[in-house]
Amino acid sequence: MKKRIIAAALVAATTMPIKAAIITQEVSFGVQGSPFDVADVSPLSESLFIDAFDQTLGTLNAVNITVSGQIDSEGRSINESTEAGRADVNIFLASDWQVSSSVADTFIFERANFIDPLVSAQSSPEGSFTMIPGEASEVFEFDVSTGERGGTLTNVDLTAFLSGTPIEFLFSTDARTNVFNQVDGGSGRFTNDFSTGSWGRIFVEFDYSPAAVSVSEPAAFSLFGAGLLFLFSNRKKALKR
Fold first, then answer.
1. Which helix (H) or strand (E) segment is 117 a member of?
2. Residue 240 maps to a domain
3. What is the pLDDT of residue 214?
């Protein structure tokens, strides 16, 4: 009976199955919140690559992919007219803001829309003119942002991550920043400067079952020797009785 217990302990020590595990990858472009890095969003075309799963780690069970993106614009409008003025700043999408790849369904942050702006800012409400020439208010500084948008990709092709080839994810859109100026009568003259930029990120979780871990041969013999020593010690005690 004791020999069976030792054998069982030896088997457990030499072959140790491990529960499911997760490793992650994260890649990004641009600087979140910056309108200056990756400034050309008209159009935006940025690729990110995720490495394939390392099959020496074990068996891949699932791949969870999260995408995030953000568009920011910063600038100023200066009223150089003789009359009070105002400014409207709007970012419109001339094409879908999306992430596409060959391994999952396309994720769309926002659909193209040239009627309703994605984000906007005003120096003052419509009909109100607060940009006064010659005063500090003649300059309207703006900083508009979509804030972080994101979601999870669907219908992920698991086998694509076993090919050993990096997977491409393409962030694309055509974002147009428009500054519209008005003056309270007469003709207006304004100087407008701005920069619009984008940030994007891919976060991937590989859910896998690790290969069984085997104890080295010397360690296995050490366990076996400890078991024999235990049996021998018990036997000597029994004979003394």
1. none
2. no
3. 58
